Amino acid sequence: MKHSIKPLIVLAGLLLLWQGAAVLFEIPPYIVPEPVDVFSRMVADAGLLWEHTLVTLAEMVLGLILGVLFGVLMALVLVYFAGLRPWLLPVLLITQAIPVFALAPVLMLWFGYGMASKVIMTILVIFFPVATCCYDGLRHTHQGWLDLAHVMGGNGRSVLRLIRWPAALPALASGLRVAVVVAPIGAVVGEWVGSSAGLGYLMLQANARLWVDLMFAALTVLAFCSVALYYITDNLLRWLIPWQQKTAY
Amino acid sequence: MFDITLRKAGLAYGDNVIFQDLDLTLKAGQWTCLLGGSGVGKTTLLRMIAGLTRQKNINTRGEICCGDNQPLTGRIAWMSQQDSLLPWATVLDNVTTGIQLRSNRLFRKAKLSADQKDRALSILERVGLAAKANELPQNLSGGQRQRVALARTLMEDRPVVLMDEPFAAVDAITRLDLQDLSCELLAGRTVLLITHDPLEALRLGHQVYHLRGQPAELTDAIEPPGQTPRSLEDSSLMALQGQLLDRLRHAEHGESV
Questions:
Q1: Looking at the structure, do residues A17 and A94 belong to the same domain, yes or no?
Q2: Most buried pick, A40, A200, A207, B227, via CB within 10 A?
Q3: Contact A147 B136 (CB under 8 A)
Q4: For chain A, what is the domain count?
Q5: Contacts of residue B81 in chain A, CB cutoff 8 Å?
Q6: Which domains are assigned to chain B?
Q7: ipTM exceeding 0.90?
Q8: Any CB–CB contact under 8 A between B90 and chain A?
Q9: Could you read off the pLDDT of B92-145 as tens digits, one per residue?
Q10: Who contacts B152 (Cβ-Cβ below 8 Å, separation ≥6)?
Q11: B84 in reach of chain A (CB within 8 A)
Q12: Separation of alpha carbons A158 and B113, rounded Å
């Protein structure tokens, strides 16, 4: 657990700096609230924060699951149906070329103010890193393994299942790590444009009323969720793919 | 057992002819060793025999015949320069990769029959790694990994074994041990071994060929006397190694001038 102490020290240092600066320069609390105030707001409004956190978390997790599913499917199609590649690659690029901020109002119009539009936004944000990483991983299978499988008489399906897929897992894992980091962007941007619940919605409301301490409290919870999600995913991947650190391929 | 004969074999990557009109006979149950500098086309020749050169930009010619007139496909085991062990599979799973690959299961891995498992374990015992059956390859040394690769080759139980510098990546002592072990365990099979180490070829080969030039040609075979694996203390072996090294050096310098 030694490595988990260093980030905590950094965090505590930053909080101290923040508190010190707020006190020293006498920054008004409606511009930068003191960490102590933010913390007491978090405690006082714990119920409210929890309620909205659940909504945002659900959007992120649902978006992640579906986005990863679609990304992996897309990668498999790109690898195994070479004829479709010239048609599909532009589509893949277009989903990324349009900023998700610009798409948000349209998605709101089509899918409503509820969770669906935010989940779709999250899917759009994470689909690309997952699809490209998985596609790269599937394409660059170590030639020695493929030769061996060919001589052993493996068929396309068994080679995919036993060799190409596990060989692509470390690459897919890199895609997943990126996806987990950017997933909150999709969810919160969606909430920011139009919603009735979620941390983004809470921030928007607090912002309009100059409840800066509540805004910072929501921001802190969001940051904590993102970091926690990343560490959980990272540890899960390390456990599932124990060989990735030590292979040269 | 059967001889394998290459007649007028040729291969080109586009316009780049690697070799043409090559004749070579791999004698049944014997080791044929192929020496040559890097880039001369040794591995390409081996890949052609293994049927790994069926790609768009590769033109192959000539024929590969077996003495019993059956096709060669499905009767070859392949051992490459890197051990090519699957890093996510245990030693036992690596040894039985071939069985898994030939099964038609969609998602779950095929369960080994008790016979197959016993055989895999007894082969691992013969290469001295029975205790490591459930380890991942990353916990093994280079020599141990190569022994797992040898066990995997034996598990395939094919009459023909093609080896591409299988012992190049290990230290000198381990290499000698692996040579002795392979010689013992692969006895009776038709082996084609590619190597850049003249001593290895002379210790293990019944016929030793030298591939050189561009397009590459085979020299006449050297047939070192005595039983394989030949002892390092054999002075005639050392003399032959000296001659071979000289020839290899001349070939290399001839190409570079």
A1: no
A2: A200
A3: no
A4: 2
A5: 144
A6: 1-75+159-177+184-257 (3.40.50.300), 87-157 (no CATH)
A7: no
A8: no
A9: 999 999 988 888 776 666 678 889 999 999 999 988 898 998 999 989 998 899
A10: B85, B94, B95, B97, B98
A11: yes
A12: 18
